[in-house]
Specification:
Blueprint (H helix, E strand, L loop, with lengths): L1 H29 L5 H7 L5 H33 L3 H21 L1 H13 L7 H10 L2 H14 L3 H23 L1 H42 L2
Length: 222
C-alpha cells in the first residue's frame, strides 16, 4: 500500500518539475519583456485601437504556431527519420546560438532591423515580425519540440506544455497592451541588463539539452 502511494506521489510530482522547466524555457526563449522595445517601435504612431488589434492578432498567431508544434512536432520528427537525441543536440546548439546573441546584444539589433523592414506594411505587421520570428521564432519552435518530446506522449504533460504556451503568450499580450507605459519605465539600461541575464539562463538550458542528447546517444550505443 505504501509503495503504491509513493508511486502515485511520484507521478503527481513529475508534472510540477516539468511545469517549471517548461515555463522557464518558454519564457526565456520568447522573452516577453525583451519584445517591448520592438513592439513600441513598430507600432509607434498607431491609434490605440489599432495597436490593440496588432497585439491580439500577433498573440493568436504565435500561440497557434507553438501549440501546433507541440501537437505534431514529435510525429514530424518520426516521419522525417530524425532521432530525438539528434534533435536535442541540434536544438540545444540553436538555443545556445540565440542565447549568445542575447548576451552580446546582437538579438536586439536584429529584431530592430526586422521590424524596420516590416513597418511599411501594417496589415501584416502582426504576423511578421511580431508573431514570426519574434514570438514564435526558430528558438521557440525548437524549444517547444524538445519539451513535447520530453512529454513522451503523456497527455498530462502535453496539457501542461500547452498551458504554459498560453501563459507565456498571454503574458506577451498583456505586456504589449501595456507597452506604452512599460517601455519608458524599464528604460534602455534595464532592457539591456535583463536581456543579458535571460541570455545566460537560456545558455545554461541549451547546454543541458545538448548534455541530455549526448547522454541518450551514449546510453543507446551497444
Amino acid at each position: 500500500m505504501e509503495r503504491r502511494l509513493g508511486t502515485q506521489h511520484e507521478m503527481s510530482a513529475v508534472p510540477v518539475d516539468y511545469l517549471i522547466s517548461t515555463l522557464v524555457t518558454l519564457f526565456v526563449v520568447v522573452d516577453p519583456v525583451g519584445l517591448v522595445p520592438t513592439f513600441v517601435a513598430i507600432t509607434h504612431g498607431l491609434p490605440r485601437s489599432t495597436r490593440r488589434q496588432v497585439a491580439i492578432r500577433a498573440s493568436l498567431i504565435a500561440a497557434a504556431i507553438l501549440i501546433g508544434t507541440a501537437a505534431v512536432g514529435d510525429w514530424l520528427l518520426t516521419r522525417l527519420g530524425i532521432s530525438l537525441p539528434a534533435f536535442r543536440i541540434a536544438g540545444g546548439l540553436l538555443l545556445f546560438s540565440i542565447a549568445s546573441e542575447m548576451v552580446f546584444g546582437v538579438r536586439i539589433e536584429r529584431q530592430s532591423r526586422t521590424a524596420e523592414q516590416a513597418i511599411e506594411d501594417l496589415r501584416h505587421i502582426a504576423a511578421f515580425p511580431l508573431a514570426i520570428p519574434l514570438m514564435a521564432g526558430p528558438g521557440a519552435i525548437t524549444a517547444t519540440v524538445l519539451l513535447a518530446a520530453q512529454a513522451d506522449g503523456r497527455p498530462l504533460f502535453l496539457f501542461v506544455l500547452i498551458g504554459m504556451i498560453l501563459v507565456v503568450i498571454g503574458l506577451c499580450l498583456a505586456i504589449f497592451l501595456l507597452a506604452i507605459r512599460i517601455g519608458p519605465l524599464l528604460g534602455i539600461t534595464a532592457n539591456v541588463v535583463l536581456s543579458r541575464l535571460l541570455g545566460v539562463l537560456l545558455a545554461a538550458l541549451a547546454v543541458q539539452f545538448v548534455i541530455d542528447g549526448i547522454r541518450a546517444v551514449l546510453s543507446a550505443a551497444p
